[in-house]
Specification:
The chain is α/β, with parallel strands linked by helices. Helix content is 42%, strand content 18%. The longest helix has 18 residues.
Length: 201
């Protein structure tokens, strides 16, 4: 599977409806701390909206809802992997991306034959407190060597200025949260990212 080099991550379906029409081709819906009914409402809306705009939607964490609502892609963290029914996801033809932070997690993730593995944080990130320090570009290169043909997503502290280094180190896609979410004009910043990643598309 080839991933788009720009991987947008948003926290609400309204951000998908705002940003995807500008040309986003790969977007993750990462909903936190909401009741199941609201999660499913947002996933349903995002699924239909992305289908119209031909964007690949990835559902973060909520694999059962993604399965029930006929989504095609989920992203799971290490903790979610413990409870996810990989056999059911595979039977449904749902692609799975997996987060990794150290060698043991990478080895475990690769054993599931994922659609991609993600490594982060590549750089210091303001988004959330993490037990891992910045991984750095050398680590990106190590991960790509270990992952082989499995696409590698870099995440954490990324800016458009850091893209050449990230892709030169071996990443296939750059996942972006804060640089767009906290921008004064998220739409304009999203367009900046689409232009900046064009050379790797």
């Amino acid at each position: 599977m080839k991933l788009d080099p720009f991987y947008l991550i948003v926290g609400h379906v309204s951000q998908i409806e705002l940003l995807v029409p500008h040309g986003v081709r790969l977007v993750q819906l990462r909903i936190k701390d909401q009741p199941d009914a609201e999660i499913r409402r947002q996933i349903r809306r995002a699924r239909d909206f992305c289908a119209v705009h031909r964007a690949q939607l990835v559902i973060n964490d909520h694999w059962q809802a993604a399965l029930d609502l006929n989504c095609s892609f989920v992203h799971l963290g290490q903790e979610d992997m413990d409870s996810a029914d990989f056999a059911a996801l595979r039977r449904a033809g749902i692609a799975v991306g997996l987060s990794t932070h150290d060698e043991a997690e990478l080895e475990r993730a690769l054993s599931f034959d994922p659609a991609y593995v993600a490594l982060g944080p590549v750089y210091p990130t303001l988004l959330k407190k993490m037990p891992w320090g910045p991984q750095g570009l050398d680590r990106v290169t190590d991960w790509k060597r270990a992952a082989g043909d499995v696409p590698l997503v870099g995440i954490g502290g990324l800016t458009t200025e850091r893209l050449p280094g990230l892709f030169a180190a071996g990443a296939d896609s750059a996942a972006v949260v804060t640089d767009i979410a906290q921008a004064p004009d998220p739409e304009a910043r999203c367009c900046d990212w689409i232009r900046a990643t064009e050379a790797w598309r």
